[in-house]
Task: inverse folding
C-alpha cells in the first residue's frame, strides 16, 4: 500500500506543482489548531512576558531542528541503507509542526485535568488528541480531518498503543483523599498513559495497514509495569527524528528561557548539571584550547549561559549544534518495513548531557512552586469548566458544539475536544464568564 495515500480521496489540480508532503505542510501551517498554539503554555505562563516560548514557537523550533537532523543524516551517511527512507524536508517539518497540536490549555496540568474528567469516557492524552485533531477535527475534508498522507500520520503516531491497553488500573484517576475542605485531583494518579485514544482505533488500523502482521504486532508491543501505566516500545523512523528534535528543544531552548528570566541561579544550575555530565560538550569547547582542563571549559560554559544575552545565545547555539551532530541511525531487529526498522538515536555522551539539561528544566523550572502554582490553578479551571459544560450542555455549550454533542456516540468526547482546543486565554475567559461574579457580558463571543 502507498505510504503517501490519504484516507479520503483527493486529487490536486493539474497545475499544482507541489508534491504530497508539500500539501501536508501547507494544510498544517494554515490550520486552526496550529494557530491556536500561539495561545497555549509551553512551560512558563502566558502573559508574564512576551519573550519566552509558547507551544507555537516551540513547535517551529522542533520542526527546524528535525529538518536539520534529517539533513545531517543525509550528509553524514551517504551510503547508509536508510538513506532512501530519510524524510523530505517538508515531511519532517510537518511532523514537527504537528507534534503538540493536541495539547490542551495550561500544559500538562490541563492534560491531567482532562484525563480526570474523562476517566469514565476513554480518558485523555495530549499525543492521542493530536492524532484525533488531525484525523477527525480539522476541516480540510468531510470525514478525515486534515486528510494527511499515511506517512505523515505514521510520523505523528508517537505511541502506537491504545488507551485501554496502556492504561493500568493501579493508576486510576481520582481525587486526592487528603484535603477535606476542597476537592483536589490526585495529580500523580490522574496522569494519563502515553497512547492514542481508543476512539481513533480505525485511524491507526489505516495508518498501519501496509505493515505485515508480524511487523505490526511487534511495533505495537508494550512493556507491562506493575504500578504504572504500560509503555509503548517503538516509534517510526520519522517520529524518532522528531522526538530527538523535541528533546533538544526542551532541554536547551526551554532552559534558555529560564536563564534569561532569572528563574534559576548559577549555584542551582551547577548542582543540576554537574561537570561530569557535560563531558562530550566540554570536549568541543576544549577543541579551541586543547590543554585546558574540563573544569575550565565547564566554567566557560557557565559564564556564557549566565552572562549577557549575546554570550548566552552563542553558547545555546553551540549546545544545539553539538547535540544535533551527535545522532546516528540504528536498526531495530525483527522489522521488515524500513520506516519502522530504522530509528534515530543520540550517542551516549551527548545523550547524558541532554538528559542533565532536561533534568534541570524539570527540577528547577517545571517543578518550582512558581510554575506549579499556575499549573495547579489552570488544572482547577479546566475541571470546573468541563463539569459546568457537562452538567447542562444545552445551556452552556456554544450552539455548533451542542449540535455535535447531540449527534455524537460519545458526547463527553465532544466536550473534551472543545476544551482541549481552547487557548489559555479563552479557557480563562470561559471560566470567568461561568464563575466570576463581575466578569463576562452577553456580548462576548463564545
Result:
Amino acid at each position: 500500500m502507498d505510504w503517501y495515500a490519504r484516507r479520503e480521496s483527493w486529487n490536486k489540480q493539474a497545475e499544482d506543482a507541489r508534491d504530497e508532503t508539500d500539501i501536508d505542510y501547507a494544510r498544517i501551517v494554515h490550520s486552526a489548531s496550529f494557530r491556536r498554539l500561539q495561545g497555549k503554555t509551553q512551560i512558563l505562563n502566558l502573559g508574564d512576558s512576551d519573550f519566552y516560548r509558547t507551544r507555537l514557537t516551540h513547535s517551529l523550533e522542533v520542526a527546524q531542528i528535525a529538518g536539520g537532523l534529517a539533513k545531517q543524516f543525509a550528509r553524514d551517511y551517504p551510503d547508509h541503507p536508510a538513506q532512501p527512507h530519510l524524510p523530505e524536508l517538508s515531511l519532517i517539518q510537518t511532523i514537527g509542526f504537528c507534534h503538540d497540536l493536541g495539547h490542551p490549555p495550561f500544559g500538562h496540568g490541563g492534560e491531567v485535568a482532562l484525563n480526570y474528567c474523562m476517566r469514565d469516557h476513554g480518558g485523555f492524552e495530549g499525543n492521542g488528541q493530536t492524532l484525533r485533531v488531525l484525523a477527525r477535527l480539522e476541516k480540510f475534508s468531510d470525514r478525515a480531518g486534515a486528510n494527511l498522507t499515511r506517512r505523515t500520520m505514521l510520523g505523528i503516531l508517537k505511541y502506537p498503543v491504545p488507551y485501554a491497553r496502556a492504561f493500568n488500573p493501579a493508576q486510576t484517576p481520582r481525587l486526592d483523599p487528603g484535603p477535606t475542605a476542597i476537592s483536589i485531583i490526585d495529580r500523580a494518579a490522574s496522569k494519563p498513559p502515553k497512547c492514542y485514544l481508543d476512539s481513533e482505533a480505525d485511524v491507526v488500523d489505516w495508518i498501519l495497514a501496509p505493515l505485515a502482521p508480524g511487523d505490526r504486532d511487534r511495533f505495537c508491543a508494550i512493556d507491562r509495569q506493575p504500578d504504572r501505566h504500560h509503555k509503548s516500545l517503538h516509534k517510526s523512523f520519522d517520529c524518532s527524528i522528531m522526538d530527538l528534535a523535541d528533546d533538544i528543544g526542551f532541554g536547551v531552548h526551554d532552559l534558555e528561557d529560564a536563564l534569561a528570566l532569572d528563574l534559576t541561579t548559577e549555584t542551582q544550575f551547577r548542582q543540576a548539571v554537574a561537570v561530569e555530565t557535560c563531558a562530550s560538550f566540554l570536549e568541543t569547547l576544549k577543541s579551541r584550547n586543547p590543554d585546558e582542563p574540563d573544569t575550565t571549559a565547564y566554567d566557560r560554559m557557565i559564564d556564557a549561559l549566565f552572562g549577557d544575552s549575546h554570550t548566552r545565545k552563542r553558547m545555546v547555539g553551540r549546545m544545539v549544534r553539538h547535540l544535533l551532530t551527535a545522532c546516528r541511525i540504528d536498526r531495530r531487529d525483527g522489522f521488515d518495513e524500513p520506516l519502522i526498522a530504522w530509528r534515530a538515536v543520540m550517542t551516549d555522551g551527548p545523550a547524558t548531557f541532554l538528559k542533565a539539561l532536561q533534568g534541570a528544566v524539570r527540577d528547577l523550572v517545571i517543578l518550582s512552586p512558581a510554575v506549579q502554582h499556575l499549573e495547579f490553578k489552570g488544572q482547577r479551571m479546566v475541571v470546573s469548566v468541563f463539569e459546568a459544560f457537562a452538567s447542562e450542555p444545552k445551556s452552556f455549550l456554544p450552539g455548533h458544539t451542542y449540535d455535535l454533542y447531540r449527534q455524537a456516540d460519545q458526547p463527553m468526547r465532544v466536550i473534551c475536544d472543545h476544551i482541549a482546543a481552547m487557548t489559555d486565554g479563552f479557557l480563562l475567559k470561559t471560566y470567568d464568564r461561568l464563575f466570576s461574579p463581575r466578569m463576562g457580558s452577553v456580548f462576548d463571543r463564545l
Q: What stands out?
A: The two ends are 43 Å apart (CA to CA). The chain has 22 helices and four strands. The longest helix spans residues 237-260.
